[in-house]
Write a structure and sequence with these properties.
single chain; mainly beta; 2,3-Dihydroxybiphenyl 1,2-Dioxygenase, domain 1; 5-stranded mixed β-sheet; 13 strands
């Protein structure tokens, strides 16, 4: 089965390390961190804000790190054409679209399960130039502890997530991660 082996982001590795993600290696422009079930590769040669994925038939496994990362919850794609993008994700991963949700405000979401990671495809809001990976969310063992450690200038206060009984906290721009990123609890 095809898995999301890595997420590749541009920018500095320093903010990811400061949050407590387990650093696996650093060579030249690339620093690798563990998201437990997905490798996070921070590439300083890429512009901050860029994010992409690498797929593989081999699953990744790494340590939780000080942040208590339990794995990637979901990866968000932005597109102008839900059906075409979902068809391409199915072609690349073998994972069919499971459902479509009207999120309100002209936003529609499609969902795939690629191995143990949800891929959320979003249409609506601002037009995009081309379909692309936009951001991602990781599960952590203790969301309150991570938010307290990082501070309110880095991570917003936890709030109810779309998933019933769960909470989410979003990284602020001051975190310096360069990509849309959030943390969820697994309650």
């Amino acid at each position: 089965m095809t898995s999301i082996a890595a997420l590749v982001v541009g920018g500095s590795p320093d903010p990811w390390e400061a949050l407590g993600f387990a650093q696996l290696s650093s060579e030249g422009e690339r620093t690798s961190f563990s998201l437990v079930d997905v490798e996070l590769v921070v590439d300083t040669s890429l512009a901050a804000g860029s994010v992409d994925w690498r797929l593989s038939d081999t699953a990744f496994a790494g340590p939780a790190g000080a942040i208590g990362c339990l794995g990637v919850d979901h990866v968000v794609w932005r597109t102008n054409d839900l059906d075409a993008t979902c068809d391409e994700i199915t072609r690349l991963t073998g994972a069919p679209r499971k459902r479509v949700r009207d999120a309100g405000g002209g936003v529609t979401q499609g969902f795939h399960r690629v191995d143990n990671v949800i891929v959320e495809v979003v249409v609506g809001g601002a037009e995009v130039v081309a379909p692309h990976v936009w951001g991602f969310v990781v599960n952590v063992a203790d969301l309150d502890a991570v938010c307290t450690f990082a501070g309110p200038d880095v991570i917003g206060a936890p709030k109810p997530a779309t998933q019933v009984g769960r909470r989410i906290a979003t990284a602020r721009s001051l975190a310096g991660l360069g990509v849309p990123f959030a943390l969820m609890d697994v309650q």
